[in-house]
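Q: What would this complex look like in 3D?
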Amino acid sequence: QKEVEQNSGPLSVPEGAIASLNCTYSDRVSQSFFWYRQYSGKSPELIMSIYSNGDKEDGRFTAQLNKASQYVSLLIRDSQPSDSATYLCAAKGGNNRLAFGKGNQVVVIP
Amino acid sequence: DGGITQSPKYLFRKEGQNVTLSCEQNLNHDAMYWYRQDPGQGLRLIYYSQIVNDFQKGDIAEGYSVSREKKESFPLTVTSAQKNPTAFYLCASTPRGQGATYEQYFGPGTRLTVT
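A: Here is my prediction, written as structure tokens for the whole assembly.
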């Protein structure tokens, strides 16, 4: 099993709807989890960090961590066309490295 | 302004030439990282350094070399031994030590094309 997995294909959501992204992780990573947004041709930008079980909200973004089930999710409320991007899930592994998932593309349809 | 700079933004080289990509940060971060990203792929770790004068191989170090002589700088050399060097190269940094959150921050990237 890979350390961090994002298996969903591209996600299309209407403007104003909720976009939901999921990420599962293995026992080889722990404690610290991150969501990055990457626009086409640009570098990743950190949008959320979560370290403990439960929900963490920041503006229209909510990160959810469930350590028992080993998944972390990102909700984007009131999706806007500017949210169209690839979202990368990452988790802290050994030697202070981050393990990244392959990313999920989100397309917000006006 | 604090941040991470990478230069150049676009780089074109002929096959068989070594090329060095620059990464500088003024965030006072201890750890620095180099990743490679290919179209439709995730980030793959090339090399990382947690302190000055020390660095470790990542998952795809073959054909690459680095140095860390200063805290602020972590240049990456793509050698002629790298078989598929054309890619988007990303540098990142993070603070270390007690209370560190391990959040990594990325530079703008260098897009290298080798023909």
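A: To summarize the key features: The interface with chain B takes residues 32, 34, 42-46, 49, 51, 88, 90, 92, 95-98, 100-103 of chain A (CB under 8 Å). The two ends of chain A are 37 Å apart (CA to CA).
Q: Very helpful, thank you.
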